[in-house]
Amino acid sequence: MTNIEDLIQKISKHTGLSRAEIKQKIDKKKEELEFLINDNAAAHIIAKDYNVPIGRPDSKKRPELTIKSLKQMEPGLSGVNITGIILRVYNPIEFTREGGKSLLAPILLHDGSDSIRTILWGSKARQVSENQIQRGSIVNFKQGYTKLGRTGDLELHLGDRGFVNILVDANKEQYPDPNNELMDLDVLDEETQDIDTEGTVTKLGRLVTFNRADGTEGRVANIFIKGKRVSRRIVFWDQRAEEAFNFTRGDQLLIQGVNVKLDRDGNPELHSTRSTYITKIGHTTLPPLEESSVVEGTQQTTPIKTIDTINSQDEFVSISVKKGPTGKIREFARKDGSTGSVCRGIVFDNTGVVSLVLWNETSSDFEAFKDQPIQIKNLRVSLSKFNTIELHTTTNTTFSEALEEEIGSDPPMTEIVELKPEKGIACVHGIVQYLSEVREFNRSDGSPGKVQSLELEDNSDSTRIVAWNENVTKLDGLDSENIQYLKVLYGGIRVNQDGRKEIHLNFQSEIQTESSIPPKLQKIQKKQRTPESDQPSIDYIKTHLAELSNEADGDTIEVVGKVIRLFQQTPYYWGCSICKKKVDQNEDGQEWNCREHGNVDPSIRVRLSGLLDDGTGTIKVTFFGISGEILTGFKSTNIKRMLEEGKTDDQIFEEMQQESEGKTVQVKGRVQLRTQEVQEETVQRQELYVNRIRFPSPKNLSEELLAELQE
Fold this sequence. Notes:
single chain, mainly beta, CATH 2.40.50.140, 5-stranded mixed beta barrel, 5-stranded mixed β-barrel, 13% helix
């Protein structure tokens, strides 16, 4: 009698179900899991559901369950056979049990579709501690079992009955590269949990013992490691404090599973945890410590530099500058219960402008200066989320008046051809060549956005000046027909998808118009405006859905496809007449409330979701506002009239559905990756939020198809 028949008999005896009923349940379970498990595994799951005491099978007789996709795994599986790559190795943990000490080693396994925390026990864990199993190893695990961990997440376990096979010649192309998961020390700028990074030890600290508020003794030690440019502190706590002295200056470290926290000055530092795994991967000989470098907590200073000479290789600098605009002070709460503050400003000298981030009391020290030159010592050079240079104050930063500095009253203008994206911000001037219309679009949450741009030309080149949302008002009053000279101060330098440099206005940016044109710009003639000149600032990439990466998030794409289905839902919502966001009706049903604008008169906005099929794949699409009206042919006034006539939401939806399904549309929008719970499983799915829609003619579609075939 086969093992499956044994299971069926045990289930039948325990539950009273017939063999046919059990077979039906096995088939249904396999269908639920998309046939990624066999009859034996399905029977084991059913037995567990009914609490059938089947006992623990002998390892030699345990059925093998080959898993094709981690996304289909669930608790209670045994005999698991799976292959994947190790993305991360956590710190092996020694523990005591009957018979002596043993070891467990958590790792993160990725099978090409998803990742799972995997716990290796005993001799399998020793393969990790002895570096036989490493980050990047491709392994085949057999006879594993699944269960829910302490956090409620699914885990894979491999015990004494399991087998590990390291696949030396395996094809790595089907798996993610662990090196792509490493975060650069230079760009850490916020608190983050459980990251991987690497760097070189530049300085060793000392071990400090202290007493906590509850009377217990604590220990802490730290070392400094350097990435490509910036040094960061690694903090070791309590039982791991002595590990800080396992390394020497020049050791190259791989650090897995470490947390990032901000110190009191907003400087990111690494904090080891029980799971953090630090290994030495090399060694380099370092020059003696430079006396000119600043280490947090010391009083050493750096030589003064001009803004144009600051680069990404600098760690600390001092500058003599004048103040530009300064933003509002923002307070925040630290995890220890204390409060901190931060504000952003801009400073300039005769060579350029740069962002200055002021932490805590340094903002008031900075604010005490008015129009006079300021000498600021000991600023940390950091990189923003746009990978641009900005300066941060530290506990060592000092401010004093620079009496002998001759800095102009206005920031210097940069020639457009000399714009450097790594500098972050710049001031430019030139002749306005054309000014686009304000274009409105829908954000992913249904709220409206708007964008406007102009082309500015100086003697060196031209660039686009882009204003988003509230910054559009800064372009009010500009003359789009006649020659007009203007200055754009403190704009953010960006590179669009075509590789062209642009200036994007931010809350600190200023637009200055002047009647007199500088002599060197007077020869610039206003060019004839062309349709291509006035294209919106969003670059949509034509694509087929089959070519869209499963990890695409935030991509702006253009797709031609057929609306094959609309999902049953209320096809509209009541929105704020000002911001268009959803409003809530008060309990008395008399007033509508917007979280931002209070009591308002609401307006109806179309909202529909469905499936779009372009012949290569499908994607969920959502139509808000105007895009929904164009698709269905139903305007908000039509919906309001239908409601007044007494029609239900379902009736309105059915009419809109009849007008929409089967239509071929050309849509432009933004892709977003959404996390959802499906049958008690967390999955990620992509959704396209439509900004623009049109109905392409058959002639245009055939011409585009022919052009693609000829490429």
